[in-house]
Amino acid sequence: KGPGIQPDSPEEYENLRVKMNLFYHEVDLDVQKLKPAELKEGLVCVVFSLALKSWCRAVVESVFQGMVETQAWCLLVDHGDRIIVRADDVRTPLEKFLQLPFRVRRFKLAGIRPMTLQVPISENTAELVPSSTWDSSATKYLHNLLQGKSVLCLFFSICVNHELVAKKFACFINDKSSVMGGNRNGDRAPVSLAWDIYSSPHQLLEMKGRCPVKPPPPDIFSRMERDDDPQTGQFLLWRKYNGPNVAESYCWPAVARGFDTVLVSHSGDNPLSYIPPLLMLLQTVSVVSSLAARTGPTAVILCPGWEKVQTVLELLEDSKATYNLHPTSVLLGVDQEEPKKFKIPRNCQLLVTTPFTMMRLLDAQCFLFLRLCHLVLDEADVLYSQAPEQMSVILKHFQKVVSGEERSSCPRQIIAVGSRWSAGIEALVREHMIYPSVIITVMEEAALYGRVHQRVQLCLDCDKISVLLGSLDFHPPKPQKTLIITNSAEETEHVYKAVVNTAVFTLKAHEDVTDQFDFVIDQWRKDISRGTQVILVTTNDCLKALGIRDATCVVHYGFPSSPKLFGSRLFCMSEHFRNLSDMDHAESSSPAAQSVLLLSELNARHVCGVLRYLRRSGALLPPELLQFALGVQQAKEEQKTDRPLCSSLKSFGFCRDSTVCPDRHMINKSLDHPKHPDSGTCLTVNVSFAFQKVLPLCIKSANVYSGRIVSQKDDCYETLAAEMNAHYASERRCAVEVLKGELYAIQEENIYNRVRVMEVPDKGEQLFSSVTACFIDEGRTQEVKSHQLLQLPPQFQDLPGQAVELILCRAQPVDGEVDWNPKVTRAISQKIRGKLHQARVVMSVGNTVWVDPMVRMTRVPGLKTYINEYNVHAEILASGFGVNNPQHLELLKRVFQGDENTSTLQHLTDDRFITNTQISLIFHPQIKWFQRGELVTIYIKLISPVMQKCEFHSDAVIYSGYVNDRHYYTKLELSGDIIAEESSWEMRCNEPVMKLKKKEKRDWNDCCCGSGHLFLAEVGEEGCYVSSESDSDSD
């Protein structure tokens, strides 16, 4: 009898067994740290069972001295067996191995007691009498009875009792017999199905001898409070900072000691990864007397954009440790006069800015940074991708400033923090750092640092074995150790059987053969000669236990399910990673480590991520992979039909990265049909539309607004507003029940607006609550009090919402920013909000209307003449934080008319595989060229292109790049010869510029000598070439 105990999931115990075997079989495991301090009875431990070939949890039942050494008699608490082990073979369990209850439980049968046969000496008869112990035959009978049965305690507690009583092995207990039996034998009444210590493993954690938990890291906050920087510790505690993590534990000491430091980690975009040690360093290092008389900050933090500048400055201002550093931020636009007027406060020692702003300050006032000692690159990988030219100039200036003779005793430090390794960071380490500390905690990024050669093999899943065998070199010229990694033990056996018939030295290791790990590693670590290859087939879970770091090749037979898993596989070759400190490393030499990835149709959803990583590694991409990725991305786009149009695509004409953007980049005619009668037609760009009156009411950004198009004839909204005012002047009924999606009215000053409730939170016990409402005639969304909502009669619900999204064309943020600076948005809002403007509608899709231009017109008093008070586009450019975007309308036209619906992922193609059939998908950029002496300068008129390539030949130049998911390619057949080795290209003002060195010092009449197949050019004004084969994207 009793409540019964259901058995735990067998899968959980199997997973526990696998994890224990992998941990205790780990090759580099420090056994001494896992031995118990004292071996005694009742100790919970882990021992190895030779019969089970597995590590098992156990409890020491007794300790005795053997002939040679101390031994322990242990009960395997998950199997029920008892074994004898040596004291040196006993291990302490980790806390995570004690989370599951022990499978072996002790029960007592209630209501019966054992019987035994008693034969008195003086009598010739025998009788059954109660006993304190069970007879061995009863034990054997019970074992046979329960063999192979599921232990359902409620059922068998009754059935077993009756069976044992029927077989005279036991008798039932009544009150009388219980008392008599207790007096005779001193037995206690049995407890019904009582749990013992095995059922409560959590209590074991309080016992001595449990696994010692790894002590926490030293209390860095207390240390800061005791030492020189208590404010930093208090600041971190106030921010609820729970670090430092592993990356910061290595980075902080290097930064605090003033060393050049590079950190690549998952937290690389968090300013707290470098701010605390930097502040400690700046507080302890005083300004050298030779620099005290100079101007400028001692430390500059470069951030990729105005948003990050504000974030970093807020962190610095929140920390009281910066009270004497006076941190300041500066953001300057393209106005040439503004940098000349700007003055850095004299007491400012810490400046936060962007590379573009610092470049403008250096151009205008190079003497502003004469005290600079510490240069911090926040998100360095992003800085180099967005502003490579500016970074180069800034670093050269920093090198010049700190290399003076009078600066010999001054500190000098560069800190670069990011989440990815890049070619720019590599150049930074090579050319500008002195004995740097390079810390990389992201293993897949460490593989890029180590220059692991990446190869991809496309195949069908059914052909993976044959492709695997074809990719292996069984007679390599150098000794090679190849690791083939699978995703399961069954897959390991399958691959091993296929490879062992071909390769002589083939090993295997997986979760079911952990007892062979020592043998496998011994064979792996043996020295091998030239022409020999050792192959080990294993699984993901065994990598840590095997501790392999010297593999020369990793074959990913099973596709890695995450970047972290992919990186842990690549780290098995870490001993062969290239080291930047080895300056004699030949760039052209083939890397010692290589990775082979088998990609099948089952891994289609990962192909875009794989392709991005392979591009960063510089791997040669097969055309089949590019076409495969193109099809996958196209399929993903087709699955986004119910998503809204990409906001970046609408605002600027392009998406930053359509492969990761969750929104739609294709037209859905059922959703995108124009909803306003005066907004034009869908899929049409018509520059002859008459001017419309537009009323911007909600300013979302500098060029995106919500408002109304005011009809030239009868304005339905004005009529509706007048009727609503008249209605609510005589009758005001509050909303009784507020429902999501319903229409209501709300009063603001003397105006009644229609609103649609978007979200109704749980009111709870609050008397008044707020709901999220959308003003359908203005376009803004905000929270309103639910008790302010009024019932809206049906006659006021017939007119559709009048709000439309207004987008001003041909304007985008300066410096390639993603979002507009709040300064220009605020200025535009103050200027245009609530005022009628004249605008020409050039395109309409759904509820979005594109206008160009948009002007405010004012009537001259006393005359019938109107003058343009201002042009909104010109006001944006005049702010200095906006630049012209001439391709905006043309890009929208191509996308919305379907020219790009079949080539969404054109940037995934590669110019190495261009064929004649693909020429129609290639666009030719506009170029301008100038010559001065022996130099020819060619300007490629593209804004912020990516994935650029430029090849120089003696008589031609080939350029390739991508802008807004479109591939631009041009081949210029020059009218004169050049010195290819001395020619170069760079980014200037977000545009590529090529500098060609003439072979002969003579003037060229033309840049190009003729027309080629891919580029047929005509000479325009000012040396401007425009393709005649296709439309140019430049005005």
TrEMBL record:
<keyword id="KW-0677">Repeat</keyword>
<protein>
    <recommendedName>
        <fullName>RNA helicase</fullName>
        <ecNumber>3.6.4.13</ecNumber>
    </recommendedName>
</protein>
<dbReference type="GO" id="GO:0003724">
    <property type="term" value="F:RNA helicase activity"/>
</dbReference>
<dbReference type="GO" id="GO:0016787">
    <property type="term" value="F:hydrolase activity"/>
</dbReference>
<keyword id="KW-0347">Helicase</keyword>
<dbReference type="InterPro" id="IPR007052">
    <property type="entry name" value="CS_dom"/>
</dbReference>
<keyword id="KW-0547">Nucleotide-binding</keyword>
<dbReference type="InterPro" id="IPR035437">
    <property type="entry name" value="SNase_OB-fold_sf"/>
</dbReference>
<dbReference type="InterPro" id="IPR002999">
    <property type="entry name" value="Tudor"/>
</dbReference>
<keyword id="KW-0378">Hydrolase</keyword>
<keyword id="KW-0067">ATP-binding</keyword>
<dbReference type="Pfam" id="PF00567">
    <property type="entry name" value="TUDOR"/>
</dbReference>
<dbReference type="InterPro" id="IPR008978">
    <property type="entry name" value="HSP20-like_chaperone"/>
</dbReference>
<dbReference type="GO" id="GO:0005524">
    <property type="term" value="F:ATP binding"/>
</dbReference>
<dbReference type="GO" id="GO:0042078">
    <property type="term" value="P:germ-line stem cell division"/>
</dbReference>
<feature type="domain" description="CS">
    <location>
        <begin position="922"/>
        <end position="1008"/>
    </location>
</feature>
<dbReference type="InterPro" id="IPR027417">
    <property type="entry name" value="P-loop_NTPase"/>
</dbReference>
